Amino acid sequence: MPAIPYSRHRDLLNDGGRSTAFVDTSHLDYEIGTKPLMDSRTISRRAFARGLSSLPFAACLPSFGSTDSVRYSRDRILAFVRRHRKSGGGYGWLSRTKAHITPTFAAVGCYRMLQSPVPEAEVLADFARSHYPIPDGLSQQPLWRIDYEQAQVLSWLGKPIGSDKLAMLQEPFVYNTYFEQNAYPTLQHQAMAVRLRKMISTDKDLSSTAWERYFKLRRRPNGTFNNSAATDGSDGHIVNTLWGMEALEDLGQQVHLPAVGIAWIRSCQRDTGGFTWCPVPELGRCENMIYTWAAVSLLSQANSRPRDTDGCVRWIHDQFTDGGGFRSSALANPNLTATYYALDALRILGASASGPIRPRPARRSPPLPSTLKVYSAQIEAPGNGSPSEAVVLAERLNIHLWTAKNASRPWIAEAQRIAGVQGVNVQFARGDEEYGTYTSVRGFGTYSHLDDLVAPGDVQLGPYPPQKEVALPWTEFRDTRIKAIREDKGRMVWQFNENEELTRILLDEACRTGDYGAISSFHFGLDDFLDFEPFLMEWEGRLAMIGLQDSHGGESWWWTSQLEGFRTLYLAEDPSWDGFLKAMDNKWVLAVRRDSSTNHQIEWSGALPEVRRFIADREQDWSWWTGSRSNRSLAMLTVLRPNMPFEAGAPKGGLSIRVRLRFGLGDGPNKAVLHEQQSELVSMHIDDREVHPEEVGLDHDRYLLYHVRESGSRAVSVVVRDLTNRRIETLHADLS
C-alpha cells in the first residue's frame, strides 16, 4: 500500500472515521529520542489531538516488533479484549453480565490500534445504537461523555450517527445546586457535548458564545483547565486541561499551551515515569494511566515531550499484566479502558518495543479462610415506622445486618429488642445520609452526597453537619467527621458523584487512607451507579462495593420490593458488626441484584474473584428467590399493644390487629405514594368468629385496623388473595 501524505492524514482525521482503509505508517520514524512524533508544521494540532478518536484505523501505532515473543504480547492483548465480549453484542467488565457503552468504546479502540478487524461489527453497531445505559431522567446531568462514546463507536464502524441529539447540545448544562452549590456541571461532559456537536453537525460554523464563555472561564493563567471557574485561584487538572483545550479547538478557537503550562504538565511526572493529576497533589497522590495519557497527548500537541520519555514508556509497560490487559496503576486490576489509554499513549510516544513487554503478575489475594460463611446486609434500609415489621422482613428475607437510614437511637434499640424477644438473628445498626453536608475541593466545586456512613447502632456520633448547607473544606471534613466515624468503628460509603476527575482523586486517596470503606453500586429504583459512572469499575477489588437502599419514605413494608431486589453479601465467621467491618476492609463483600431492572437475572457488583466464586457456589444458602423465600408475602399482620413506640394504630388499651396489604408505588419508592392495590383481604377471624376491620388511608400509608373487643381471644387469622394470580395466603398471630 503506498504511503499516505500528511495532507491525506488530515483528511482521514476529519472525515468522522467513515473511511475504511488501513493507513501505512511504515515510512514514519517513531523511535524515541530521535524527532517529534508529528511535526506541528505539517499536521494540525486538532488532527493530532484526535489521534485514534477519529482515524478509520490506526495511523500511528506502538511498534510491537516482529519477534514471536513480542507478537505474542499483541495476541495476548487481543485475547484480553475478546474476553470482555458479552451476549448482548457489546463489551462489558469481566465481573459483570451485561455490556456497556464505555468498555465497548475501549474495546473497539483497542482493536483499531492493534490493526485487528472488529469481530461481528454489525452486531456491535446494533448494540451501540440500542443500549444507551441510562434511562431518561435518572442522571442528575446529561452524561455527554457516554453519548460521545456511543457516537464514536458507530463512526468507527462506519455507521451513521444521526443528529437526534443535536438539539440538546446548544449550551452548557446548569447543574442542580442541591448536588453542587455553584451549579458547576462536570467539565468532561461539557467538552464531550462540544465534541459530539462537531461530529454530528452539518454546520461548518460551530462557534458559540455560551460554550466559549464556559470553557474560557475555566482556563487558568498558566493555560490549564479545571472544573471550577478560574477566579477561585485554584490550579488546573491534567485531564480537564486536555478536555478544555480540545473543546475550544472544536469551537474554532486557536489555543496553545504557554511555556509555563508545558512546564506544569512536565512537572506532573513522577520518578516512576508515570504522571499524577497535578504537580504537587494534596489529595490522590498517585500515578494513573489516564493522567499519563493526557500528559503525553498535551505535550505532543505542544511539540514537546515528557522530562523522562524512556521512563514514561517503561512505566506504561510496567502496567501490562499477565492477563493480557493494562492496569491504571500498580495497585489496580487490568481493565479495558486502561488498556485503551495505554495503547494510545504508546502510539503518541512512538514507542518502539525492542523486546517483549514483560507482563506483571496480576494482584493476588491470600486464600479465603475456610471458616467463612455468607451473610446478608441491607445498607440504608428503612429506619422509620414499624420496628416490628422491620424484624419480620429481616427474618423473611434472611437479612443479618440492617443498617437503618437516619433512624433514631431509640428506634434502633426497639428493633433490636424485638429481634431478641422473637429470636430473629438480625443486627440493627446505623446507615445514615447526613443531609445538608457540602464539602469543597478547590478547583472542582462544592458537593453534597459525599457524606453517607455505616456505624454500630449504639454509637453517639452527634448531629452533623455543624451548620447545614455551609461548605466544609474536604480536609476539614476528613479530619473531623470521617475521623470520628472510623474511631467509632464506622465507615464512610461513597454514594455518587458524576465528576470523574474529582471522584478519582478522592477514591485513590481512600485506597491509601481508608477515608471511604465502600462504593455504592446498586441503588433504589432502576439505578445502578456503575452504569452512570463506569469509571468506578477501576476500584473493583480495591474498595468494597455495596448495594445502597438509600431508603425514602416511612414504613419498611412499602419498601419490600427494594429489599427483595438487591442486597449486600459479606463473608465472615459470624454476622456481627465486627465481622461485617472486617469483610468490608478485606473486600469480602459483593452486591447482588435480581429484580425487574435486571430482567430477573443475577447481576454482581464488586468483590474479588475468589469472593464472587465463594458466594456463587453457595447460592442456595442466601438466594431470596428460591425455596420458601421465593414468594413475596401478600400482607403484613401485626398485633398491636399499648405503649408500642413507632407503631401506627397502637391502642391506648387492649389489643389491635393491623394488616397492611400489598400496593404498587405509583411514583416509585422514593415517594412511596400507594397507588395500585395488589392484594385484598378475604377474611379476618378472631378465634372462630369473623370480624371486619376498618380501613385507614393516608397519603403514604394504608392499613386495615381492628380493635379486639372479644375477651379471652387467643388467635387471629387473616386470609389474603393476590389480585393478579388469585393465590391465597393465610396469616396467623397469637393474641395470648
Description of the structure:
By secondary structure, the chain is an alpha+beta fold. Among the domains are: 165-255, no CATH class; 373-434 and 451-460 and 492-629, Alpha-Beta Barrel (TIM Barrel); 635-734, Immunoglobulin-like, CATH 2.60.40. Helices cover 31% and strands 16% of the residues. The chain contains 22 helices and 23 strands. The strands form five sheets. A ten-stranded mixed β-sheet has the order 10-9-8-6-3-2-1-11-12-13, sandwiched between helices. Helix 18 links the parallel strand 9 (518-523) and strand 10 (544-548). Helix 7 runs parallel beside helix 9. The protein is elongated and about 95 Å long. The model is unreliable at 1-69 (pLDDT under 50).
- What global shape is seen? elongated
Mean pLDDT: 87
Just name the CATH architecture of one domain: Alpha-Beta Barrel
Radius of gyration: 29 Å
At the first level of CATH, what is the class of one domain?
Alpha Beta
In terms of structural class, how would the helical and strand content be classed?
Answer: alpha+beta
Q: Determine the number of helices (DSSP H or I, runs of at least 4 residues).
A: 22
How many β strands by DSSP?
Answer: 23
Unreliable stretches covering 5 or more consecutive residues: 1-69
